[in-house]
């Protein structure tokens, strides 16, 4: 058929097809037009500044390698960024279609969203390199979280990541004109510092506006995720992304890769769908962790994935419908606190010395609405944790104090001073959390910084299901600077 040439490891782009007449300089014109409309300005960087930010694109700064270029970590104007660099081959002339990086710049310059890896800027120079600067995602990819992490994420976390990814795709499909990503896969879902999913890699994305380009761009995507209906350019639709999302959801449910030659059948969809059809929902759930508690959750999650990968694309749900379904499931399966955070924010050894630490700045002194209020910087710890009791006493903390995370082997006895309730062990695995007060679960000491203990208090209205303190409404009492203590896994 000539169009489908996929490689199991990476996406195949349509870079060599004679598709778009636009050149880089033409697109630059769009940026300046767009910049006038947008509050979030896309910057054009000097190539030399990007060279300096990455130590001249040194291997030490290399974050990863995609099929069409390298990704580096850098600091630009005090901000951590990821810099994507692709090299045009000398044979390509300026009339060739844009490569993936150019396409990504083109798409992202007109699209921004909280669930996307947003464009910060770009650089073009006279040489063959094209550079894209995007937000830095410090916690790797969903692929890593599912397949390389020593501690697989909980169901609450998985459903939330699936929901956030679905929202990201819905953002694209709902934009005007709609954008089709064409390469939805776990390796393209990046995890930000607050462990939220963000959709990235728009190298293959197409805007449904340019009929000529849409009609003439050959199918592309990643083997294992690619919609079997998408065999000619004319078959492309938003339902192409829905199919790939269905594969990603099966991957999240089962912990199996989209294609795994170690299994029979190797394709996750060929294995899972017959089981779902026979109502054997439990069989597809990741054996590394307990399945979701409620049978209705197990069934609904499996069924929504099965609907997304229906062979008849008209019968697949829209991403909006998927978002509604996953939102409902997400409310039923809350996230447990501390679980799944890839980066420990504060660890202390048995002597109370910080092992690795970051300080979390909470910008709001009153009510914080979500994790965007948190800004992670380097910690300068003032006191070893074993002295916290003194600090605690000094601040005269109160009855609704719940947990204090203490390092492994920390023997200090922290008790609620007001009621003498025995501390309860809330979390294990190296870190222990001790309860001060069994009756009131509304606030948590997250740590200390420069000699002060800070306390984040749950908003009373949030209720029982709000386990994730820094993702939900909270009130802050005490200092507005806190050290966040997280599970070390
Ligand atoms: N914004 C980012 N922040 C942090 N790391 C990133 C970022 N973007 C990409 N990376 C890292 O670089 C790697 C390569 O990314 P890239 O998007 O170029 O390719 P890919 O999606 O992994 O592969 P392909 O291009 O073949 O689909 C990613 O796997 C990830 O580890």
TrEMBL record:
Domain (Protein kinase): residue spans on this chain: 57-339
Lipid metabolism among keywords: no
Protein name: Serine threonine- kinase At3g51990
Region: Disordered, residue numbers: 14-40
Entry keyword set: ATP-binding, Kinase, Nucleotide-binding, Serine/threonine-protein kinase, Transferase
SUPFAM superfamilies (alphabetical): Protein kinase-like (PK-like)
GO molecular function, one term: protein serine/threonine kinase activity
Origin species: Olea europaea subsp. europaea
């Amino acid at each position: 058929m000539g169009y489908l040439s996929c490689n199991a490891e990476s996406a195949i782009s349509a870079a060599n097809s004679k598709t778009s007449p636009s050149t880089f300089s033409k697109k630059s014109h769009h940026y300046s037009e767009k910049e006038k409309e947008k509050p979030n300005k896309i910057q054009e960087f000097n190539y030399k500044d990007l060279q300096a930010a990455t130590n001249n694109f040194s291997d030490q700064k290399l974050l990863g390698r995609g099929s069409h270029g390298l990704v580096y970590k850098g600091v630009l104007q005090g901000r951590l960024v990821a810099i994507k660099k692709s090299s045009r081959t000398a044979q390509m002339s300026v009339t060739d279609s844009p490569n993936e990086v150019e396409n990504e710049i083109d798409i992202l310059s007109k699209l921004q969203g909280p669930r996307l890896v947003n464009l910060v800027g770009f650089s073009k120079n006279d040489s063959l390199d094209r550079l894209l600067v995007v937000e830095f995602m410090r916690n790797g990819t969903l692929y890593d979280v599912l397949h390389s992490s020593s501690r697989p994420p909980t169901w609450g976390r998985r459903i939330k990541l699936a929901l956030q990814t679905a929202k990201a795709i819905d953002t694209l499909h709902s934009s005007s004109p709609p954008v089709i990503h064409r390469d939805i896969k776990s390796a393209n879902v990046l995890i930000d510092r607050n462990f939220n999913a963000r959709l990235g890699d728009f190298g293959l994305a197409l805007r449904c506006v340019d009929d000529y380009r849409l009609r003439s761009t050959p199918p592309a995507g990643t083997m294992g995720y690619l919609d079997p209906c998408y065999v000619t350019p004319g078959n492309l639709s938003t339902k192409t992304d829905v199919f790939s999302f269905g594969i990603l959801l099966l991957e999240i449910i089962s912990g199996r890769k989209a294609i795994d030659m170690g299994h029979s059948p190797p394709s996750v969809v060929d294995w899972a769908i017959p089981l779902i059809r026979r109502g054997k929902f439990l069989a597809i759930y990741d054996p590394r962790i307990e399945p979701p508690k409620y049978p209705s959750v197990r069934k609904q999650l499996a069924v929504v994935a099965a609907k997304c990968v229906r062979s008849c694309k008209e019968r697949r749900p829209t991403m909006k419908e998927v978002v509604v379904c996953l939102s409902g499931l997400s409310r039923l399966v809350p996230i447990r606190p501390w679980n799944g955070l890839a980066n420990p924010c504060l660890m202390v050894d048995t002597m109370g010395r910080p092992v690795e630490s970051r300080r979390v700045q909470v910008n709001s002194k009153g009510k914080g609405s979500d994790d965007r209020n948190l800004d992670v910087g380097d910690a300068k710890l003032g006191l070893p944790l074993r002295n916290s009791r003194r600090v605690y006493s000094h601040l005269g903390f109160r009855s609704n104090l719940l947990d204090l995370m203490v390092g492994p082997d920390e023997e200090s006895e922290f008790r609620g001073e007001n009621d003498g309730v025995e501390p309860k062990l809330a979390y294990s695995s190296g870190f222990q959390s001790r309860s001060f007060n069994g009756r009131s679960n509304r606030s948590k000491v997250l740590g200390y910084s420069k000699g002060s203990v800070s306390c984040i208090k749950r908003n009373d209205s949030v209720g029982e299901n709000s386990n994730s303190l820094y993702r939900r409404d909270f009130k802050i009492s005490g200092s507005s600077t806190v050290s966040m203590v997280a599970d070390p896994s």
